[in-house]
Design goal:
With 68 residues, this protein is mainly α. The chain contains 1 helix and no strands.
């Protein structure tokens, strides 16, 4: 293999790796956005749950029914 062919091979590999790196970065960015949205949704649901529990006046474990 000549020096020129080796340089071409290395440049080809580097271009392929650059493309893969950019693709992976995009995936990580999208996943971070999804995680952030899911965290916001979870906070909203927990707040709604706390509000509903507060409206119902239920705190902690309920006492067992009388037949126990």
């Amino acid at each position: 293999m000549t020096l020129e062919n080796q340089v071409i091979e290395l440049e080809t590999r580097q271009a392929f790796q650059d493309d893969n790196l950019q693709t992976l970065n995009q995936v990580v960015f999208e996943q971070a956005r999804k995680i952030e949205r899911l965290q916001q949704q979870m906070q909203h649901l927990l707040k709604r749950y706390d509000d509903l529990v507060g409206q119902m006046g239920v705190e902690g474990d309920e006492a067992p029914p009388p037949h126990y």
